[in-house]
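Entry type: protein chain
Record version: 2
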Amino acid sequence: MIKEWATVVSWQGGEAVLSCDVKASCSSCASRAGCGTRVLNKLGPQTTHYITVPSEKPLTPGQKVELGIAESSLLGSALLVYMSPLAGLFIMAAVFQALFGSDIAAACGAALGGVGGFLLARGFSPTLSSRESWQPVILSVGLPPDILRVETPSSESR
């Protein structure tokens, strides 16, 4: 199970809207000064993702929840997204090379196969994402933000 913390934006009728912050993958590495991935992460937008998750328990805005998703669903979706365009690229490049016998035809076939594989993955993704085992679930719920309050003695009351 892959776990991540999210913040409740709203809860209504058994559905919780949660916000998940995008985390840069390279903030604590020892070689971060010379890392190209860190530079690319700085260029991209730092956005917040919103997700709707069923929750029978009432939640308050600002409350933290721990989300979990099965490793198999993450691996399956990554396999679909990355391997279908790659397989289409190689298969169509080989077919066009065999049919037309030129490198230009193979390059065109590779481009068509890559785009076709991407469209195939895009077409299958709604079907696969509707599976219940591929949906994130709430594993644990933190305290509401207004429950815990820490008071420190002020310097005037001494």
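Comment: Strands lie at 2-12, 15-21, 48-54, 64-69, 137-141.
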